[in-house]
Specification:
Layout: H1 2-5, H2 16-36, E1 43-46, H3 49-57, E2 62-65, H4 70-73, E3 78-80, H5 90-95, E4 101-105, H6 117-126, E5 130-134, E6 152-156, E7 167-170, H7 197-210, H8 219-230, E8 233-235, E9 246-251, H9 256-265, E10 271-272, E11 274-277, E12 280-283, H10 285-290, E13 296-300, H11 307-327
Parallel strand pairs: 2-3, 2-4, 4-5, 5-6
Antiparallel strand pairs: 1-7, 6-7, 8-9, 9-13, 10-13, 11-12
Length: 328
Amino acid sequence: MMPWFAIPANPSAAHGLGREAAMAVDRARAQVGGLLGWPAAGVVFTSGASESNATVMSRGRWAVTAVEHPSVRLWGAVTLPVDAQGVLSFDALDAAEGVDGVSVMYGNNETGVVQPVQEVIQRARSRGLRVHVDAAQCPGRLDLAELAGADFVTLSSHKIGGPAGVGALCVPRGGDAAPLIRGASQERGWRAGTHNVLGIVGFGAAAEVVAGEPRVSPALRDALEAGLVALGGEVASEGAPRLPQTSCVAFAGVLAPDLVAALDLAGIAASAGSACASGAARPSAVLAAMGFAGSGVRFSLGCGTTEAEVLAVVRAVERCLPALRENG
């Protein structure tokens, strides 16, 4: 990205710097397409996964699972229920009527649950439905060959180590553009607006790094969960296939935001799987759809996470719990 800090060039410009910027964007397009093994021409750059999702969802009527990201769930014409593990109901999918397509998240951002996307694709296509897959959490973690046959795939830069504020909507078979952001004709009419060259170049570089076999092992996640379960934690969706880097854990009598705040003071960054409104803790929509009663904390691991860090998290939680339970 460094050279582009000094070159504020617009890839749409006809001058030499503009052409250089356009070449950099096209190279990144090929790098991102390479993640999926899809043609570069099918990669549309956006401001992030939420915009990519909304661009698709604004086209027609969609059946969506009850555990989708809000940028998908709030657009759904039909909501598909999930079981207690967070896996979608195929009976509900087969029975969905009055929709043009189905949208499913490959790996859930809150619980890590991996949906059987290839079976979803096959069932939907047998009915002539389009398929959108939100795969923002998945490069470097899951086999992206499972996305073969999808009509739209959402990717995110910062989820794979690239800069924030850039994402992609991958459209392998082309199709008529129906942009959410309208104006000029950038991105072949799919998305108006001057390109974020810096971000796009960084996204492409990150995509090249994580392309190929999954790089994150579930071993450290399992070790973390074993330590937290020993402290009385309950793992959401423990019985389902899950992303190797994501754990959602609840502790009886402890509100997730309180534990997140205590861990933050200990130098550990975790996320609440629940939100507070009007002073009362409410389960997230994802956990509520599963019937999970706990107030979940999400722990996310990365390629650089070590055994020592996992142990430090477990010890920190152990130190925090007594006071939180007493106050709760």
